[in-house]
Design a protein that fits this description.
heterodimer; A: alpha+beta; Heat Shock Protein 90; five-stranded antiparallel sheet; 5 helices; globular; B: about 110 residues
Chain lengths: ~140, ~110
């Protein structure tokens, strides 16, 4: 059992609140006392995963699990799902809306950024059935 | 160099986040794609961008940037100002385009090894 588990709801298309879950997680990990570079990695991935739900996901939930030597993020959404996960992991590939792109999102860098900054990444998704992104970090 | 010194040297104006002006700015980054800035900006950087919506504040907080500088005379949205004030992130304003402002920052030593 992890030391600490916290759940954060994420609302689709709520650009006003977008990023707040990641900022809360960053603050919590600082209080716990993880190394700054480790916190930067987790915060970056939390943000990209959070933005993916806001942009594409339908409503979702991020679960944070913290242990002494690792942190895990489990992000689930009820969105349209990913048709081709291999393609979604390619830098530059994006299905973001015009609205998202105008705000500087949808550069096709979200999942590749997560992959580069995490120690494990599992994406479970089916078209029409939502997406689950599991991200692991070893402290 | 402290953000406040850069504000004075380059005649920038501060839209909000005055309490953060005491931070050290070590380098800079130009970018309008948020994921690019998330991926490539360094801690303590000044971020030059034309994006003025509230999500720039989350990027600045999560990447521990020294300040955001809106270039080309852009003004922050009201929500951006409120969020930046709450998080203590300085939002600075410049009429110059990013290329020119980056050149001036480099001239005064920001980001030079």
């Amino acid at each position: 059992m992890p030391n600490l588990t916290k759940r954060y709801p994420i609302k689709a298309r709520d650009y006003l609140k977008a990023g707040e879950v990641s900022i809360q997680i960053q603050g919590l990990l600082k209080i716990i006392g993880f190394a700054p570079d480790f916190i930067r990695r987790v915060s970056l991935c939390a943000y990209e995963a959070e933005m993916n739900v806001v942009m594409h996901g339908g409503d979702g939930e991020l679960t944070l699990e913290v242990d002494t030597d690792r942190v895990d993020l489990d992000v689930r959404d009820a969105g349209p799902g990913i048709e081709d996960i291999g393609l979604a992991l390619q830098e530059g590939y994006s299905t973001a809306s015009e609205e998202a792109r105008e705000m500087g999102f949808g550069a096709g860098m979200g999942l590749p950024n997560i992959q580069k900054n995490s120690d494990s990444l599992d994406i479970i998704s089916e078209k029409g059935k939502g997406t689950e992104v599991k991200i692991g970090f070893i402290a | 160099m402290k953000v406040i010194e850069i504000v004075k040297l380059l005649r920038l104006s501060a839209a909000t986040g005055e309490e953060g002006l005491d931070r050290e700015a070590e380098t800079g980054y130009c970018g309008d794609l948020l994921s690019d800035v998330m991926a490539n900006s360094k801690k303590g950087a000044l971020w030059l961008t034309i994006q003025s919506h509230q999500n720039i504040v989350a990027v600045a907080v999560l990447r521990e940037l020294a300040a955001v500088i809106l270039v080309n005379g852009r003004m922050p949205d009201e929500e951006t100002k409120i969020k930046a004030q709450g998080e203590g992130v300085p939002i600075l304003l410049s009429p110059l385009p990013a290329y020119e402002l980056a050149g001036k920052l480099y001239e005064i030593g920001i980001g030079r090894a």
